[in-house]
Amino acid sequence: MHSKEEILQAFSRLLDVQEELREKCPWDHKQTNESLRPHTIEEAFELCDAIMDGDTEEIQKEMGDVMEHLVFYAMIGKEQGLFDMGDVLKKEADKLVFRHPHIYGYTNEKGEHVKPVCNTPEEVSSLWERVKQIERRKKGTPEKKQGVLSGVPRSLPSLIKAYRIQDKASMVGFDWEKPEDVWQKVYEEINELKLELEKGDKDTSESELGDVIFALVNAARLYHINPDNALEHTNRKFISRFEYIERKAREMNKDIKDMTLGEMDAYWEEAKNEE
């Protein structure tokens, strides 16, 4: 592993390289925050893929790509006279200290230095939400943006957003008393969906399907399962099994469209057994 000094040198080199590219490379020279944004999203998802694959080399590579984008945004901010990487790093460190009073303590209204006690991750999360509310009020954030759910980004993928909404609401006590209590709600929503599907009402059925998914996400949260990770594992499992069926079709010089459902099911089971 590298020393802190070596890490700082490596980071400094990245800043130098990016500055040179910004000056000399036609592509880098013309980039703006808006033009970089879609590439940043793509890089973030590529990092997520590497993490799910457990590929250490790819994780390092994709982390570097994401880091390069962060450096690029800071460089554009500096060019516009708005901020530089020093501002970004300082603000983040200050924010972390402020949001972890159980580690660093804080000064209360009486001028006393106090340090709340947090012994579990759940207690830390609850404290974190309260501190973030205080932070928003201190910054003069408009009241409508000071709510418990105001910190959930609007552009989050829906499954992750549902989890974060429920997680934040639970931190102020809006939650089931026991995890098993959620199942009655899940079954209730499934029955309501079935009724609407039988009626053939597409709009209402869509709404009820959303309620079913939301309730299942809630169940996942209560049982400490990340629903997005769970669904991604299933996506990858399905792809792997379906690709097995496609390989078998090619081995028989057969178009997969010409296979019977029975044949496909048989190879599906073979793929499961091989797993």
Textual characterization of the structure:
There is one protein chain. By secondary structure, the protein is mainly α. Helices cover 72% and strands 1% of the residues. The protein has helices at 4-24, 26-30, 33-53, 56-79, 85-98, 101-104, 121-138, 158-170, 182-199, 202-222, 227-251, 261-274, and strands at 106-107, 113-114. Strands 1-2 form a two-stranded antiparallel ribbon. The radius of gyration is 25 Å and the shape is globular. The model has no long low-confidence stretch (mean pLDDT 91).
Which structural traits does this protein have?
mainly alpha, two-stranded antiparallel sheet, 275 residues, 12 helices, 72% helix
Name the quaternary structure. Answer: single chain
Q: Give the overall form.
A: globular
Rg (CA only): 25 Å
Question: Can you write the helix and strand succession as a string?
Answer: HHHHHHEEHHHHHH
| Share of residues in helices | over 70%
Helical/strand content category: mainly alpha
Helices, by number, come to 12
The averaged pLDDT comes out at: 91
Q: Please describe the biggest sheet, giving its number of strands, its sense, and whether it closes into a barrel.
A: 2 strands, antiparallel
Please state how the strands of the largest beta sheet are arranged side by side.
1-2
End-to-end Cα distance, whole Å, is 36 Å
The beta-strand count equals 2
Sequence stretches where pLDDT stays below 50 over 5 or more residues = none
β-sheet strand percentage: under 5%
